[in-house]
Amino acid sequence: MRENKLLWLMLVFVCLVSGFDTYMSIKIGHKLQYIELNPIALFLILLDNGSVALMIGIKSTLGMFASVVLAQIILSGCKFKRTIIYSISVMQFVVLLSYYPLLYSEHFPY
Prior knowledge:
It is a single chain. By secondary structure, this protein is an all-alpha fold. About 80% of the residues lie in helices and about 0% in strands. The chain has one domain (about 1-100). The longest helix is centred in the first third of the chain and has 26 residues, at about 1-25.
């Protein structure tokens, strides 16, 4: 039971980081095409003539779908649920860390 609470907290963390990532994408959207490292996100931005709207729409939809799938994994008792949730949490933590230079850089006033 305690393990499931931790997994649910990790799922909440993943969702919060995703929300923050979306917020920052909107906040710095006008410069995102010049600093985005994800080639798929960059493709979607360029496909929409430099706007982040298409990328955010697709990202939000897939994020909600992923959250439902992760919740189902936790509920189903999947054998690898800890490995899956831990891995995704680590990836989201790396996403969160990637904003550190932007938030504290005097060279990038957004």
